[in-house]
Write a structure and sequence with these properties.
Pfam families: ParA. This is NUBP2. Keywords: ATP-binding, Iron, Iron-sulfur, Metal-binding, Nucleotide-binding. This protein has 8 helices and 12 strands. By secondary structure, the protein is α/β, with parallel strands linked by helices. It has a single domain (2-238), classed as P-loop containing nucleotide triphosphate hydrolases (Rossmann fold), CATH 3.40.50. It has an 8-stranded mixed sheet, with helices on both faces. Helix 5 (142-157) runs parallel beside helix 6.
């Protein structure tokens, strides 16, 4: 199990979760069964990124993941909940449903990549007994870095293995002058990785093509065209 975590929302964690899942599926272990599990109850994104809004069915006392491609499955609360449900599913009910999903599904897949909620919450505690490996996602913004420290502290306190850190949204390109600049500073990810003695896997740039593809529903179809995807493919080549 690989848990993709971020201390702060809006840093591209869900995008990275799709990248990582697809890279493992397509390039390293295509014969394996992959499950991309979105457990962000209040802000599920995976169904939108995959442009797949099919309803999740309930069979054999558990939710049945959607097979998006052969041997590539996903399960997102975005395909389970109605908009009004998110306010209702709190505390014990949320944990009980998640525990049932994990208990019934995890052993059926060779790789489970979990898109977790930002910060640290009860959802993360549900994952602990599966001893997930952690990939943390941050931007170089001070607020995001501070929150990512809490994420890494949580991983270390629970003896979880940290694969590394991805610094996303590192630069943005001006299409008028063709120059790139750092909207949040440039060294935050490097300094954080050094402080925690973990690997800085990649420094990825803002990509307007990703934003546009999410809006028009073509993000998943265009994955291999994105620079960030291909950078991560090279970085993760020796990790799995």
């Amino acid at each position: 199990m690989i848990s993709v975590m971020s201390g702060k929302g809006g840093v591209g964690k869900s995008t990275m979760a799709v990248f990582i899942s697809h890279i493992i599926y397509k390039h390293f272990n295509k014969a394996k069964k992959i499950l991309l599990l979105d457990i962000d109850l209040c802000g599920p994104s995976i169904s939108t990124l995959l442009n797949n809004t099919n309803s999740i069915t309930y069979e054999n006392n558990s939710f049945k993941p959607i097979e998006h491609e052969k041997n590539f499955f996903f399960l997102s609360f975005g395909n389970i909940l109605k908009e009004s449900d998110a306010v209702i599913w709190r505390g014990p009910k949320k944990s009980a449903v998640l525990e049932k999903i994990l208990t019934n599904l995890v052993s059926n897949y060779d790789y489970v990549i979990v898109d977790t909620p930002p910060g640290i919450s009860e959802e993360h505690n549900n994952l602990l007994k599966y001893n997930p490996q952690i990939i943390a996602v941050t931007s170089s913004q001070n607020l995001a870095l501070n929150d990512t420290q809490a994420t890494l502290d949580y991983a270390l306190e629970n003896d979880l293995s940290v694969i590394g850190l991805i610094q996303n949204m590192t630069t943005i390109k001006c299409y008028e002058c063709n120059n790139e600049f750092y909207p949040f500073g440039s060294e935050g990810g490097k300094l954080l990785a050094k402080e925690y003695n973990i690997e800085l896997l990649a420094e990825l740039n803002m990509d307007v093509n990703i934003l546009n593809s999410v809006e028009d529903g073509t993000f998943y179809d265009k994955l291999i065209e994105f620079d960030g995807y291909n950078i991560l493919k090279e970085v993760l080549n020796n990790k799995f």
